[in-house]
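Minimal example, chain plus nicotinamide-adenine-dinucleotide.
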Amino acid sequence: MRRTGPPPAPRILHLGLGNFFRAHQAWYTAAAPDADQWGITAFTGRSPGLAAALTAQDGLYTLVKRWPEGDTATVVGSVVAAHAGTDTGAWLDAWRRPELAVVTLTVTEAAYLRGSGVPERLVAGLAARRAAGGGPLAIVPCDNLPANGAVVRQVVTELADPALAAWIADSVAFGTTMVDRITPATTASDLDVVERLTGVPDAAPVFTEPFTEWVLSGDFPAGRPHWEDAGARFVADVEPHEQRKLWLLNGGHSLLAHAGSALGHRTVAEAVADPVCRRWLSEWWDEAAIYLPLSPTEITAYRGALLERWSNPRIQHQLAQIATDGSQKLPVRVLPVVRAARAARRTPAGAIRILAAWIRHLHGVGAPVRDAGAAPFAAAAAPRDVLALFDPALAADGELVAALDQAVGEGART
Ligand SMILES: NC(=O)c1ccc[n+]([C@@H]2O[C@H](COP(=O)([O-])OP(=O)(O)OC[C@H]3O[C@@H](n4cnc5c(N)ncnc54)[C@H](O)[C@@H]3O)[C@@H](O)[C@H]2O)c1
Ligand SMILES: O=P(O)(O)OC[C@@H](O)[C@@H](O)[C@H](O)[C@H](O)CO
């Protein structure tokens, strides 16, 4: 795959060149009517593999939409340069470019903590831009975290020295986003599928579902692509959209990843075909819906759409992939519903099922544990201690602790 014309100017910088970025932000940028003015310089977290594969094909790659009936392919041309995350020189140079206007991130939930390397790299980039006399820009996190813009603003500002923090306050806008497009990791056999489909070899294709959603708020002081013409929505407040997605979709995913994998299921499609998992999902969704600021009609439509998306047998979304980093995911996907229910003196059985399944997963049941933050939770002597690590107030709630104890003891019983 080679470009035939000049690439767009690199006005966007992305950290976390992986599967989701290629299916989502890079796709929206390429689909915008002003795509010819917005190129992306993308960095992997660390490893050079994907950056090298993309560089060898001028940043071009095939996006394959997996419909239930078959595949369709589009070539995406918004990535104009790809680098390994270890290439600090290229990283700092990208921040110094006067035309840089937007920085996007897809680095996983765990990477928003100080010490992960991401806040540190952002601060180094911002310092380089300030030293070079660079102008304002927007930072737009695209990970599944509530209030992700405020989270990045805080961690970056705390890490910066006072002079840089003052410059950030004046020059950097932090967008908040809800992102959605189910994008499983590309596998080796996917490379053959794409060549059979298009006749063109591609070492860096991405396979994704047809559905996509992007809801954003915030300022873009140096401009941005017309993403809204590609289907993105700009709103005053992302929170209701984010809660709908994080609780119903991501919370449902975590339920299937922990409780569904304990029943022997490997993929989301397999788990939702099981009436037991469907019943557990309904229980969780009924409970979470009580606290969502949306009409019953909207919630019913969203639940129906999720079941349809998840039942697509051609999306091989592995429960083991979703089960990673539960210690970072459950606090944003499940605990808000636990707190709301307990404040209303309800016992949230659906949420307790997810927590119990996760605790059992930490002890070897279901999907393997891949979570750098899991050790203290796995070492906890009892469910009460697990709750205490999340939030001492939850551990002090005797009724909640008793319900969780019982659910962990009962295991996967239906
Ligand atoms: N895949 C999806 O369906 C999907 C959908 C919505 C949102 N997301 C968000 O995107 C994130 C990434 O998903 P993906 O499917 O692209 O995963 P991926 O594994 O394909 O890519 C993740 C990228 O993040 C980088 N990364 C991880 N930890 C990092 C760190 N500490 N510092 C710097 N970079 C780091 C990795 O190196 C890689 O480049 C998810 O965690 C989620 O928050 C994914
Ligand atoms: O990507 P993660 O690891 O944050 O979570 C796994 C899934 O719940 C998630 O990727 C969803 O597929 C995605 O959020 C759908 O838009």
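The two ends are 51 Å apart (CA to CA). The chain has a mean pLDDT of 96.
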